[in-house]
Amino acid sequence: MTGLDKITQKIAEESRAKVEAILAEANAAATQILADGRTAADETADKIIADATAEANRITSAARAKAESITRTKYLEVKNAVVNDVISAAYEAVEHMSDEDYFALLHKLCVKNIEKGECELFLNARDLKRLPADFEDSINSAVYETGAVHVSLQPKDIENGFVLVYGDMEVNCTLRAVFDSSMDQLKDLLGPMLFA
């Protein structure tokens, strides 16, 4: 081997060593870049997963709250409907009472609503026809310390119950008015009984 061949071989070996060193350095840098990239990708993926989980939890919580609100609203609607049905059935039952029970109810209602002084009690035509003979006297016996009631023989255009007239003032004691004025109390009373 000549001197030139030796120099060429030495240069080639040095070049190969430099190339291998550069390649080793490049491989180490590439490995580090890949590791850093994986770490960054893992961190990004973890953040995306955490954010998505938080958003899913928020959406689930909001959906659950909305579903519970809708359920409560529907429950209250059904509860009110049932209570209203019971009250309607009670009203119907009162309308279909026997004459004796019906006028006993009117008697109690009159005694409860009587005010000081004399008044005129108006019934509808149907109730005037079936009015017990002692109805006026019975009421007056019960309210003699407060006032006096005179049953008018003129029918009033009302569905049922009666109207008390004190001069210009009227006290509406029709069954519908009594039920309507007591509606909140009836609902408060029936709610716990029906939905314990």
Give an overview in words.
This protein is an alpha+beta fold and 196 residues long. The protein folds into two domains: 96 residues; 97 residues, ATP synthase, E subunit, C-terminal (hypothetical protein PF0899 fold, 2-Layer Sandwich), CATH 3.30.2320.30. It has a four-stranded mixed sheet with strand order 2-1-3-4.
Features of this protein?
4-stranded mixed beta sheet, 2 domains, hypothetical protein PF0899 fold, alpha+beta, 196 residues
The CATH architecture name of the largest domain reads 2-Layer Sandwich
CATH topology of the largest domain: the name is hypothetical protein PF0899 fold
**Unreliable residue runs:** none
CATH superfamily of the largest domain: ATP synthase, E subunit, C-terminal
Percent of residues in helical segments? over 70%
Radius of gyration: 47 Å
Beta-strand content estimate = 5-15%
- Report the sheet with the most strands, covering strand number, pairing sense and barrel closure: 4 strands, mixed
Q: Give me the oligomer status.
A: single chain
How many H/I helices?
A: 6
Please list the strands of the largest sheet in the order they lie side by side: 2-1-3-4
Give the mean pLDDT.
86
CATH class of the largest domain: Alpha Beta
Distance between the termini: 111 Å
Find the count of extended strands (DSSP E, 2+ residues). Answer: 4
Name the structural class.
alpha+beta
Can you tell me the overall shape?
Answer: rod-shaped
Number of domains: 2
